[in-house]
Every structure is written in structure tokens, then in C-alpha cells.
Amino acid sequence: MSDKHTLIQPDRGQQATAIHLVDKKGLEDFTKTLSAPQRAALAAQRFEGDGYAHAIVPDGDAWFVVAGVADPAKLSSWCLAKLAEVLPAGSYRLVDGDPGAALLGWVTGQYRFDRYKADKAKEGARVLLTKEVKAIDAALAEAAATALVRDLVNTPAEDMGPAELEAQAEALAKAHNAELRVTRGDVLEREYPMIHAVGRAAERAKAPRLIELEWGDAQHPRIAVVGKGVCFDSGGLDIKPSSGMLLMKKDMGGAAHALALARLIMESGLKVRLHLLVPAVENAIAGNAFRPGDVLRSRAGISVEIGNTDAEGRLILGDALTRAGEDKPEFILDFATLTGAARSALGPDLPALFTREDATAEGLLQAGEACDDPSWRLPLWNGYREYLKSDVADLNNSSPNPYAGASVAALFLDRFLPEGIDWAHFDTFAWRPASKPGRPKGGDALGLRASWKLLQARYG
């Protein structure tokens, strides 16, 4: 229940420390309401109303907080997150107004990944009170989905392989009375040959599989959510350098996003027929690893020449997207840590967004701006399809030239989808190389909340 949550609680007048929000423009007027010692305390802490800055001000035997924000009348998701990281444990309330969007950052700012640490953080919780009781559950659900992505991505590959992704899907299915199907072994090789080929070199405990979950009323609109689940990417026989492998535990970040979005959909009871698909593999090296120059069959019947074994994510997604399209959903959404080219173009904070429909792109971009989860649209330009030509097969999985890598990868995926289906693809980093308020260094959800807001707008 929301009123028992340790980080956000309904404001019923309980004792709490006050937080005053000010911006640079309003700081002078605010200081006029303070006593001389309080003004001196602000000056001593060099508080000037900058965003994320704060000061502790004495008030008799107690104290209150003054925090700088860009606009006290329009709080962002992250404007209180720094406070949630640094204030002493206790309960707090805003003096004027309610936190609104800032509820999310208050929770995500207190996220810690300490699974492998002997000395776990022992400080108590910072509790934020709000009279917006109806907003609590929504904020907690989105924060929990974000934490799920972070936990899955931060977990090393030894403890987060295909079997562990399957276990996550199984737990979701049991919690929400959904149907779970897992295809592996000879059946996987026969029906999803590209998924099998990419993952077949992994040890038996990390064998490749396609994980599917279905939930919801069959009469409701059918949607598919697909996530790339490469639990570790060595690059295959086109092996990565050690520096390139260091973060490859995060190559299942697309699967983490898909699982988290599925949980949001099911927890909320969204009126859709959900089809979740996670192709889960480890791109390992062994005597039976797939090779450069091999030609793979695909579920779609399209033959694919392997130009680079390190372009494996698009192969497993090709089979999964084909399966998703067979049931004729009205919308397919996929997440993948697909290309370094997207990171070179947009940096770590902006997922590259590709869509077939302009209206879908606009909806996702607007939703992202509204909830502080931005992305940037890149083109699915037909002129680049020639980069995927093969001399011996229908497609090559890797272009020999270095141009437009993110667009070329998206065009590869597009070939495995039926015409006429609305489709959106996030090429997301799923990682933060440096901490920001509410967003610690490590695995993170990028594009998740924007997608959730779009689905709520369409089907809620």
C-alpha cells in the first residue's frame, strides 16, 4: 500500500521538516521573510538559488531546508532528487504546493545497487509527504520499473544469463496470471534459427531461448513489446577488445526495458493484449560459434550473410520481430542496446528513436519531453537499404562502410516486420557513465517512461 511505502507517504499532518523551494528570481523576496541569523546561515552556505543547491537553515530548536529549482511552479522529475540523496533520514514536506513529477526523482535518487557489497548502506529513508495521494502509486510504479531495469543491467553476466531473464519473466507471469512460453533446444534451432545460431556457443546453463509472455483480454488491441536479451557480448569470433567487453553485461538492457514495461502494463490493467518477447542469448566463443561469412536462415525465410559476428543483436531481434508480427498486432515496440553508432551520434543520454509512422514518433517524443525521458528521432531512410546488400544472400547483417550505422541497423530490423504494422524501435544505451541527481552511474532506463506514457495515452 502507498501509505506504507518508506519513501513517499500521504500527508496527513504528521511531523516533518519543511522544504522551501526558490529560484534565483525569487531568492531576494524569500530572504526578506527570514530573520537575520537565518539570512546569515544562507549566506554562510553560499546559497544563491542554483538548481540542485540547498541550505540548512536553523529555526529555533529545529531547522528547515531551502532548495534551488529552475521553476518552483513547474517541478521536473529530478529537481528534488539531490535532496533525497543528501538530506538526513527523516520526513519532509514542501511548504508550497505538492511535488508532482518530482516524486519520481525522490525515489530514484535513493536507489542503491549493493548486492555484492559486504557493507551495505545503513542510513535510513528520506520520506516525502504529499497530498497528491492518487499520484503516489503511479510514481512508485514508474520508480520500481526503473529500479528493475537498473538491477537487471547492473547484475554481472555470471548471475544474469538467459535462464535468469527467463526467471524474471516467469515471476511476472505468475504475479499477473499470464501465459509463459519458452522455446529452446532443437525447436529453437528449427523455428528461430538466428536466435539459436547467435547463442549456440554458450555453455548449456546459458543456452539460447525465446521467452514469450502473453497477457490480457484477447478482445483488446494487441501490442507486442520486444527486448534484445544478449546477456553478454564477447563479439563472437569478431571478438571485441577488452575495453569493448567491459560493459557488455548491459547488452541485455533492451530485455530489461521490455520486462519493466510489461510489468507496468500488467500492474495497471491496461486494456491491451500484451505479447512480450525476449530473445535471450550469450554471444560466446567456442568451436561451434557462428562465423563471419556464414549464411543463416531466419524465421522469416530471409537468408542473412554474416558480415560481422558482433552485429548479433539485430539477428536475434529479426527472429523475434518476425514472431511478433505473425499475430498481427496493431503496434510493435522494441528496445535494444543495438549500435555504438547511436551513441556516437547522440551520446549516452538520448536513445535513438526510429518509427515507421510520423504520428508515433511525435507521440513518443512529446511524451518523453513531458516526463523528462527524452529521445531523438533518426531516419529510416530507404536510400541506405543498399548498405545491407549481400552477394550470396538476401541481406548482410553488417555494412562494410561506417556510415549511418544506427539507421542501417534499424533498416535491417524493418525487413523482418510485416508491412503496415506501426513499429517503434529504441536504440538505447541503458547505462549512465556518470551520476546525475536521481540517476546514479550504472544501468538505467532510457525510453521506458516515454513509451509507458504513450501506451497510457493510446489505451488508458
UniProtKB/TrEMBL annotation:
**Pfam families per UniProt:** Peptidase_M17, Peptidase_M17_N_1
> Which terms does the record give in the GO molecular function aspect?
aminopeptidase activity
Which keywords describe this protein according to UniProt?
Aminopeptidase, Hydrolase, Manganese, Protease
**Which interval of the chain is the signal sequence?**
none
Q: Which residues form the Cytosol aminopeptidase domain?
A: 308-315
CDD domains xref list: Peptidase_M17
Family of this protein: Belongs to the peptidase M17 family.
Q: What is this protein called?
A: Leucyl aminopeptidase family protein
